[in-house]
Amino acid sequence: PETIYLKDYTPFGFQVDEVHLTFHLSPRATRVVSRIEFTPKPDAVDRSFFLHGEQLKLIAAKIDGQPVSPDVTGQGLTCDVPSTPFVWESEVEISPVTNTALEGLYMSNGMYCTQCEAEGFRKITFYPDRPDVMSTFTVRVEGDEKVMLSNGNPTGSGDGWAEWHDPWPKPAYLFALVAGDLINHPDRFTTKSGKDVELNIWVRPGDEDKCSFGMEALIKSMKWDEDVYGLEYDLDIFNIVAVDDFNMGAMENKGLNIFNSSCVLASPETSTDANFERIEAIIAHEYFHNWTGNRITCRDWFQLCLKEGLTVYRDSQFTSDMRSASVKRISDVIDLRGRQFAEDNGPLAHQVRPESFQEINNFYTATIYEKGAEVIGMLKRLVGDDAYAKAVALYFERHDGQACTIEDWLQVFEDATGRDLGQFSKWYSQAGTPRIKVTDDYADGTYTLTLEQSTPPTPGQPDKDPRVIPVAVGLLGQNGDEVRGTEVLELTEAKQSFTFEGLPAKPIPSVLREFSAPVILERESTNAERAFLLAHDSDSFNRWEAGNTLAKESRVAMVLDGAAPDADYLDALTKLVRDDSLDPAFRALVLSPPSQSDLAQTLFERGHTPNPQAIYDAAETFAQTLAEALTDSLPRLYADTTVQGAYSPDAESAGKRDLNARILSLLTRLDSGEAAARQYDAADNMTQQNAALACLLKAENGETQSQAFYDQWQGDRLVMDKWFGLQVACAAPEKAASVASELTKHALFDMKNPNRFRAVMGALAMNQAGFHYAGGAGYKLLTDNLIILDALNPQTTARMCSAFQTWKRYDSTRQELIRSQLERMLATANLSRDTNEMITRILN
Ligand code: DPP
Ligand code: ZN
Fold it and tell me: Which intervals hold domain Peptidase M1 alanyl aminopeptidase Ig-like fold (predicted)?
């Protein structure tokens, strides 16, 4: 397969002035007629007229009305064209109903829909399918569907047709079309300048009662972007459509966002608190793309983080404002460590702005998205809030309507602040997670913190330069009072010391407050000091972090030395759980154990070979010991944290229910599921029903409830995804693979639906001890299924290969078992480019 390099970028030799598309819809033979106005660029370096096109049957092509015969290959076509402006016309035929890859135009439950990012438009018609080619689109849809939508504003409709015009120039990846038997949930929004916008969420009949939460989230997002970034919506209408079969979470097509139904449909009976929060965040994310992504887009796909990192950063700001900022920060760091650190410290490590790829779909990663957002958070921390606002305003003023690069982004910060961001740009060009070693010293009233940074090698990048790293630090006195408030130290050298004068005694440092940089901190400390910070730190992130480190160290000792759970930590934990003065959501986070994958990584970095079963056993022992230590308190705690009354998804109630669920899981260890069974029977919302079922399945005492759940929800696709996933997630290590295997034989298991496939196979990969259970049944089962899926849907297959990315952490037996599965996959005939690239990278 061909590798594409950033350094080879050349602009397209033609300007696209206007695009007219007509669709004659038909499941097996949709005709797409295009009429595109091209103007050769006078200064073009490359004058060749190449249009991307894949899996298209060319019916006819014309230039200025005269038939032409272009050279067509599997990738596109070339044609001789005039050196003056000309009109290109083509007619192609495509088959949406057989499109199981879910890229381009496809069908989901009888409804037509599209997914064009990154390179799906070339499966719809011949076009320069690259993000730096921007044009206005006029679209006519003909068919007998009740509702026919495209981007922009509606300009007319009648029996069997609808027309749309999008006045904002856009790249083809933002094109969208939806047609089907849909019902809308309507609302309106008046922008700050008084523009009246029609809002709709379009769903299949039967789902109309699951739209109101998403609509509220949309309205809140529109308002927030006006208030915080001054950005206003720019069309007469904003449509969201829910689709069941979708590779990703959602897509920000101009004026016509298409959502995986799991990321927009919500009701108390069918959605958990976590679903509600995620839906709110994703609706905001896609809406925010209207400016960061659509109005200002990416010059090429290497710049993907330009829109994704910034938009994730913006949606995290939004969630912090709507909910609890500290809870959001802690949750984001847990997620970052779980997904991005795993990626950054393994064979798939890549730069926030990669310099080469084979298949761009493989780079919609935690590094581009979440680390991309962290980089923006660091930039804001370094320049300050006012300068950030100034630079971002300059970005919109200077680049509206353009396809940009990371250099453009950094330039507005340099221009707005006068700061040189040369060293900062290494965050984009160097892969890997920096380690910061912290040592300290105190003498004669002066406290010295010494920070030493290094970044381990990553594929293709053996050596790394020091980066500029904002390290937020506060100092506490022995009594727990803060003697120095938070200060941001700028670490720029490989090793650097910072002094704090005039301190009467040696302080206790609170380093990397708010997780001010995506790094791994290495600092010798004691459990006593950690317990002190857990009790006193005024920075809630570091407070949680102290508890998290205690939990980790205790487990490391349990795994390596067969130690008992750390008594001081248990003691601190039992106090914290009962401390009603603390936010329940925070208590829930303190109670949530470090992930087993995280522990495996920690052990690996310290030179040990992690044993997934031992890690699992330590987690079980710890939870059992904690439950027993809390025996007397659990029933009261459970009762006190049970949210009464009508369900509301607000952050406060959700935090309380989260704590309640964690207490129920401890209680289940003592009462063998009595309370959980009662909760299951009484539950009138999915959060409590789901939590109870999880506890019962984990206790291997949930068959009745699992059957009842199935009977109640078998007609609801999204709830059934939970049913499939929970059984695998809650299975004991020795059973996980066989439970998953049985579920793949279930009548409702559907390889072609990414949500269902992920529910089972994703849950297997996440069940660490189950996936890595001795013998390798988990590896084989996942590989069997990935091989089948690859022929249907390369994109989802390739993404799920990352389950194997941590394989080199493990013992040689497991490594050999995994290697043989990866090699088997690689040897599969006609393996997709997507999967081939992933496996090759993982093996190297
Ligand atoms: N651009 C989408 C998103 O991140 C993914 N295709 O929102
Ligand atoms: Zn995005």
Answer: 432-523
Same domain? For 80 and 217 the reply is: yes
Which run of H or of E encompasses 89?
A: strand 86-94
The answer, yes or no, to whether any atom of ligand 1 lies below 6 A from the CB of 391, is no
Is the CB of 310 within 6 Å of ligand 1?
Answer: no
In a domain, 307, yes or no: yes
Q: ipTM for the complex? A: 0.98
Q: Does ligand 1 lie within 6 Å of residue 166's CB atom?
A: no
Among candidate residues 286, 374, 553, 837, the one labeled active-site is 286
Q: Are 410 and 439 in the same domain?
A: no
Q: Which atom of ligand 1 is nearest to the CA of 369?
A: 4
- Segments in the chain below pLDDT 70: none
Q: In degrees to the nearest 10, what's the CA dihedral of 520, 526, 529, 535?
A: 80
Q: Does 98 share its domain with 224?
A: yes
pLDDT given for residue 110 in this prediction: 97
Q: What is the pLDDT of residue 74?
A: 97
176 pocket-lining for ligand 1 (C-beta < 6 Å): no
Domain count, the chain: 4
Q: What is the pTM of this model?
A: 0.99
Tokens of 503: 């301190």
Nearest to 759 by CA among 260, 330, 208, 201: 260
Q: Are residues 26 and 167 in the same domain?
A: yes
| Shared-domain flag, residues 151 and 115 | yes
In the reported structure, the alpha carbon of residue 307 is separated from the centroid of ligand 2 by a whole-number distance in angstroms of 7
Residue 813 has a pLDDT of 98
The pLDDT score that the predictor gives to residue 636 is 96
Which residue has the CA at smallest separation from atom 2 of ligand 1?
251
Residue that is last in its domain, among 479, 499, 517:
517
Least distant ligand from the CA of 307: 2
Q: What is the pLDDT of residue 1?
A: 86
Q: Is residue 570 part of a domain?
A: no
Ligand 1 pocket: which of 117, 282, 316 to mutate (most atoms within 8 A of CB): 117
Range of the domain at 843: 720-844
Are residue 384 and residue 442 in the same domain, yes or no? Answer: no
> At 774, which CATH number?
1.25.50.10
Long-range residue pairs from 709-716, CB within 8 A, at least 24 positions apart, any chain: 713/270, 714/748, 716/270
Asked if 286 is an active-site residue, the reply is yes
Ramachandran assignment for 502, one of left (phi > 0), alpha (psi -120 to 50 degrees), beta (any other): left
Q: 35 — phi, psi (to 5°)? A: -140, 110
pLDDT at site 675: 98
Spatial distance between the Cα atoms of 308 and 318, rounded to a whole number of angstroms: 15
Q: Whose CA is nearest to atom 1 of ligand 1?
A: 251
368 and 456 belong to one structural domain: no
Going by CA atoms, what residue is nearest to atom 5 of ligand 1?
251
